[in-house]
Amino acid sequence: MLICIAEDRPSERVAVKLLIASLLAHCPDVPIDLSYPPMDETFVGWLQGKTQIQLRSSANAGHSWNIKPYLLLALLDEGHSEVWWLDSDVLVTADFRTLAKSMSADTLVACEEALYGAYNDNGMRTEAWGLPVGRRLPFSLNSAVLRITQQHRPLLQRWCELLEHPVYRQAQQQSWTQRPTHLTGDQDVLAALVSSAEFADIPLHILHRGSGIIQYFGFSAYTLHERWLTMRYGLPPFVHCQGWKPWSERAKFRSGSGFKQWLQALYIQLSPYMAKARCHQPQLDETVDWLQPGSHIVVWGQRAGLGQPALTGLPLAVAFDALRVLKHLASCLGVRRLLAKVSGTIKHD
């Protein structure tokens, strides 16, 4: 097994170090292939003595976040039989190698997308690419964690082909809000291929929200159901900090910033990602301001959670879950009223 990490943003430096620290804590003997072009001498010094880490230069080759299939193919070409990709904003909470022991060599591992902004895929990305649908997934795929083997080489090659397609490349010149769903990013292209008839026979192992991975994104992150799963079975082996990053401006308590941003900052500070990140702070060899509690309410929230990720921030999760249910009910009632109005108009006519 080889673990692959690639990142080209200077702002993610501490996140990369935290991911490495979590891997060394839980999978200390697994080799890591690391590509981080913004690396400076201080970072190189921090890597000294970590013999399981091999550095790769010029991995991005202009692909930015679309690098995944290109780099994974390169690693397969080098002879590696099994490669796990981990996004830089992921933390490992346990030895996940036990997952692979029960998998066949041709099993592809991917994640269920975060609840925030998620919707059913049901083959729509595949159809949008003009490909015949071979299976329909009831959720959107997320590629924060991927496991590929030599058997997935044809899938990776087709993934690269579609990322080079003029339609996709043109869409990438637009803002996120303007791109069609099937062209939003590289993982949407992967989802289209996985659901296509060409690759429908590839076995899938999905890391589901709450049981396989914590997708911490927005106010819909870490629901009551997911927290119950943690209390019963323990924290999943992966925690993914999507969208609102602890090192971003949204995670900072600022006077005059408004109640919503204050609430965002509080929810990020009380996240399981932050709880696990603070555990690895001694291994960073540097002081990281955003790992410190930004407010007294964060300290009290941590104490109220008794050191348990599922209990930390629980009152906020209750409120957000209740609000989401109310919005769903209001939406359903609105549709019913509209249908009733239309029906009454038709009958009247």
Determine the mean pLDDT.
Answer: 89
The spatial strand order of the largest sheet comes to 3-2-1-4-7-6-8
CATH topology title of one domain: Spore Coat Polysaccharide Biosynthesis Protein SpsA, Chain A
**Unreliable stretches, pLDDT < 50, 5 or more residues?**
345-349
The best one-word shape is globular
Structural class of the helix and strand makeup?
alpha/beta
What's the CATH first level of one domain?
Alpha Beta
Roughly what percent helix? 40-55%
The CATH H-level homologous superfamily of one domain? Spore Coat Polysaccharide Biosynthesis Protein SpsA, Chain A
N-end to C-end Cα span: 69 Å
Gyration radius, rounded: 22 Å
Strand content: 5-15%
Give me the number of helical elements: 13
CATH architecture of one domain: Alpha-Beta Complex
* Number of beta-strand segments: 10
What does this protein look like?
With 349 residues, the protein is an alpha/beta fold. It has a domain of 206 residues: Spore Coat Polysaccharide Biosynthesis Protein SpsA, Chain A (Alpha-Beta Complex), CATH 3.90.550.10. It is built from 13 helices and 10 strands. The protein has a 7-stranded mixed beta sheet, with helices on one face. Strands 5-10-9 form a 3-stranded mixed beta sheet. The longest helix is centred in the C-terminal third of the chain and has 35 residues. The radius of gyration is 22 Å and the shape is globular. The N and C termini lie far apart (69 Å).
